[in-house]
Write a structure and sequence with these properties.
Leucine-rich repeat, LRR (right-handed beta-alpha superhelix); single chain; 8 strands; two-stranded antiparallel sheet; alpha/beta; six-stranded parallel β-sheet; 7 helices
Length: 213
């Protein structure tokens, strides 16, 4: 069975070109991307947010080319950071990367991200964060485009979560994105239960799709 077919089976039948958010956390075990993986993921041509947390990745070789992707999550894998440059090469719109709980030991592994659009990065749980108390300060200097590291800005203040489609990026649907019809059914049910809701609140809810950044 191809990876594309496996995705359809596990996520339910869907049109890949319409999906903007794809969450595959713990759904597969993939140490390295094959050409089959690459081709299947590249069929999601409108993808803005891809989450590949906890799938066992040890390498980013053959990472898919995703021209619209803005957020990539790779938490809790086995990445050393040797090939991080592939992310900015394959995803030119990328501005946020989550790399918590990997095997990155040195800030040198991250220098390749300088000169690109990266403004937010999460690194907690890597050896480099345990071994270097000043890693945030040093990384802000290495990559001037960064606005926050681990949700902390250059002045040490917490940064609000990024929003996409009205939902916090920490919230989302495992296994992909609901289509508009399914979202409308869910929202209609919620509106029926909430007697006395204002019309403008109902309109606002309908604009807040189950997507995350």
């Amino acid at each position: 069975m191809s990876f594309a077919q496996d995705l359809q089976n596990k996520l339910g039948q869907h049109s890949t070109k319409e999906i903007q958010e794809l969450i595959l956390d713990k759904l597969f075990s993939v140490e390295k991307f094959t050409e089959d993986h690459k081709k299947a993921l590249e069929s999601y041509s409108s993808l803005i947010h891809l989450s590949l947390n906890s799938i066992g990745l040890t390498s980013l070789d053959n990472f898919p080319s995703l021209n619209e992707a803005q957020i990539i999550e790779l938490n809790n894998n086995q990445l050393t950071g040797d090939d991080l440059k592939v992310l900015v090469d394959q995803c030119p719109q990328l501005y946020k990367i989550k790399l918590e709980k990997n095997k990155i030991e040195s800030l040198d592994k991250l220098i390749c991200l300088a000169g690109h659009k990266i403004t937010k990065i999460n690194l907690e749980g890597n050896p480099l964060t345990d071994n270097n108390k000043d890693y945030r300060k040093e990384l802000f200097e290495l990559i001037p485009s960064l606005v926050s590291i681990d949700g902390i800005d250059k002045n040490g203040n917490p940064v609000e979560s990024t929003y996409y489609g009205g939902e916090e990026d920490e919230e989302g649907l495992e296994g992909g994105e609901l289509d508009d019809e399914e979202n409308d059914e869910i929202e209609d049910g919620e509106d029926d239960e909430d007697d006395g809701e204002e019309d403008d609140e109902e309109d606002e809810n309908k604009n807040h799709k189950k997507q995350k950044n």
